[in-house]
Design brief:
By secondary structure, chain A is an all-beta fold. Chain A has no helices and 12 strands. Chain A is 0% helix and 52% strand. In chain B, the strands form 2 sheets. In chain B, strands 2, 4, 5, 6, 9, 10 and 11 form a 7-stranded mixed beta sheet that branches. A 4-stranded antiparallel beta sheet of chain B has the order 1-3-8-7, with no helix packed on it. In chain B, a hairpin with a 5-residue loop joins β4 and β5. The N and C termini of chain B lie far apart (37 Å). Classes of the chains: A mainly beta (113), B mainly beta (115).
Amino acid sequence: AQTVTQSQPEMSVQEAETVTLSCTYDTSENNYYLFWYKQPPSRQMILVIRQEAYKQQNATENRFSVNFQKAAKSFSLKISDSQLGDTAMYFCALVGANSKLTFGKGITLSVRP
Amino acid sequence: NAGVMQNPRHLVRRRGQEARLRCSPMKGHSHVYWYRQLPEEGLKFMVYLQKENIIDESGMPKERFSAEFPKEGPSILRIQQVVRGDSAAYFCASSPRDQTIGELFFGEGSRLTVL
């Protein structure tokens, strides 16, 4: 079985500052993918960033980057230069060979003007 | 290229009625996944289908729930004799191939409310 844990229910950050969202996971597989999804008030799930477990280099997408610590099974998301439009729920997710995407419970991020 | 289309966006049913949720995957995508999101929770896997085949239904409740993805037409998630606990957002996602390789593209979800 695989699990994804997001222990922080909510966070708040000032506009233009940097915030880090934490995620830990557990899986017995060697090959897997990790994702961060954003769910704004519209409720659509939007892929923010993806990390292949076999890649040591941390993924980066513009203002979004991850800190992937495979041995520690940690996968945190860093948002730089936070914008008001970043306000949303953020879900960490994992998929392995069973093709089932397992989500954490999510964290509510509020960006303050 | 249209995204994953789900309808209805909102559905209200009384206890005991049937709910049918439809999902049209992105063009060229042959893999469909259904997820359920309860309030304040993450998405929970329900079922994984390819055209005319159910690949993995380990997340589906044993009774009242069924899913199909016919050769022609959208994927359907069917809930018979709905109960209040079925109230949730149901998300469909599609991918062009096995999810372990590619990413999922999600629809906007269908919100079911059972009175």
